[in-house]
Write a structure and sequence with these properties.
This protein is an alpha+beta fold. It has helices spanning 34-46, 64-78, 91-99, 103-106, 110-117, 190-193, 263-274, 314-317, 379-389; strands at residues 10-17, 20-29, 51-62, 83-89, 126-131, 135-141, 147-153, 170-174, 178-186, 198-203, 206-209, 219-222, 229-242, 249-255, 261-262, 278-289, 292-295, 318-320, 330-338, 350-351, 359-367, 392-398, 412-427. It is built from nine helices and 23 strands. The protein has a 19-stranded mixed sheet that branches. The protein has a four-stranded mixed sheet with strand order 1-2-3-4.
Length: 433
């Protein structure tokens, strides 16, 4: 049992039964103390406990603020097939809920109560559980013959002197079965996007990018119906499905007791579980913090003087995270990782860790937090819900800052889902496929 707040005002205790958590609340749920209930509910949801029962039999006062907390948590859980029910309520609480017309939503019926008390995590298609020091993984097979065709779009070397022009711009559509990252912008042509090219990420028909026009506000577009997301691309990496589908496995991970798991630790586990040295990866996960960079100015604008990556000009062209940012946000991450020679991928991948044992290129879109459904989930449905319900806060090129004293380290994650597929084919820009 755990308590929150001062005993004379509100007390919240927990009891666990399989996949269900019972929270007993005593005291007042007014404008101030309702925040303590919101914190307790949010903590359970973030820990992956998505079936909550509330005992409010000792609550002496329930205000509109308290009602708001209950309704928000109910809606958050309902959207991921979880549940929140009040199975015991004081007469005062019951009366307030009935007056608000929320009794059918919030007050548990006997059949709902029995169902929640016996909920077990889904094991459909679960292949195995892998326990490692840094994290634990539930592994789901999706399509054993699945894989990805990877191609390089454009010439990334042109960014060194900002030489991107109309002839170097590619107008791209990315279907649901593909994902892509790179430098691009949403628009109809090069001239429209000239001053806005920045980091982009495209997954399952949705695109987010960071404009470089001075607004510092991330933008996005989600394809609807038969329409596709139209992106003007300076350069990038696109991964498209071959054979049975794009991804062979879904990994659900939870960081271990030692704390958050780093990006390269996750990649090490993905290589081992997939038994492949070259992977395309899409991840939706709660971040403990992101480390990366984004362009401040478009590489398609005319410039004078030295290149954008020379000191001190780099300060005007690039924005770096001085420390981990977007802590406890929900993130969409996509990219490629190689454990062998980079080969034709050399121009678009860089070492992700100081030993240089993993080369890769990853972008991340940071969103306001929303809980992620447990068990086996569908990538397209998950990504679409993220874009529809939450706001895009930032798009970053993930980096490792390994400076001895001032370095911010790597991006780290708490829990989430990784879709992984081996790279069966790789082609350079000159090998159009």
């Amino acid at each position: 049992r755990h308590t929150f707040g001062r005993e004379e005002n509100v007390e919240i205790s927990r009891r666990y039964s399989r996949d269900t958590v019972e929270l007993s609340v005593a005291g007042r749920l007014d404008g101030y103390w309702s925040d303590h209930l919101a914190t307790a509910l949010d903590e359970e949801i973030r820990l992956g406990r998505h079936h909550l029962l509330l005992d409010l039999s000792e609550v002496v006062f329930l205000s509109s603020a308290g009602i708001g907390v209950l309704v928000k948590s109910y809606n958050d859980l309902d959207s991921i097939r979880g549940s929140l029910s009040i199975w015991k309520a004081s007469e005062r609480v019951r009366k307030v809920i009935e007056i608000c017309g929320l009794d059918q939503m919030l007050l548990a019926k006997e059949d709902v109560l029995q169902e929640n008390l016996h909920v077990l995590p889904s094991t459909a298609s679960l292949v195995r559980h892998v326990e490692k020091a840094e994290a634990s993984f539930d592994v789901y097979h999706l399509a054993l013959e699945a894989g990805l065709r990877c191609r390089i779009i454009g010439d990334p070397r042109l960014i060194e002197d900002c030489r991107f022009s109309k002839t170097n711009c590619y107008s791209m559509n990315f279907p649901d079965s593909s994902f892509a990252i790179g430098l691009g912008a949403l628009g109809e042509n090069f001239d429209e996007c000239r001053t806005r090219f920045g980091e982009f990420i495209a997954v399952a028909g949705a695109v987010a990018y960071q404009p470089t026009d001075g607004t510092n506000v991330a933008d996005h577009l989600v394809a609807a119906g038969k329409s596709l997301s139209h992106v003007q691309v300076c350069y990038g990496i696109a991964c498209e499905q071959v054979a049975a589908g794009p991804f062979s496995m879904l990994l659900r991970f939870q960081a271990g007791p030692g704390g958050p798991v780093s990006l390269t630790e996750l990649l090490d586990s993905c290589f081992e579980i997939a038994e492949s040295p070259r992977l395309g990866i899409v991840m939706v996960a709660e971040a403990a913090g992101l480390v990366g960079a984004s362009l401040r100015r478009s590489p398609a604008q005319a410039k004078e003087g030295p290149g954008p990556f020379e000191f001190p000009q780099v300060r005007e062209w690039l924005s770096f995270t001085a420390e981990r940012t977007h802590t406890r946000s929900m993130t969409l991450v996509a990219g490629v990782a190689l454990r062998d020679e980079a080969g034709v991928m050399g121009p678009v991948v860089r070492p992700l860790n100081s030993p240089g044992s993993i080369n890769g290129h990853f972008h991340a879109a940071a969103f306001s937090y929303h809980p992620l459904q447990n068990g086996k989930i569908d990538l397209k449905t998950t990504v679409r819900k993220l874009f529809e319900r939450e706001s895009v806060e930032d798009v970053l090129h993930l980096l490792s800052d390994d400076r001895v004293i001032a370095g911010a380290g790597e991006s780290e994650f708490i829990r989430g889902a990784c879709w992984i597929g081996p790279l069966h084919e790789i082609a350079g820009e000159e090998q159009k496929i």
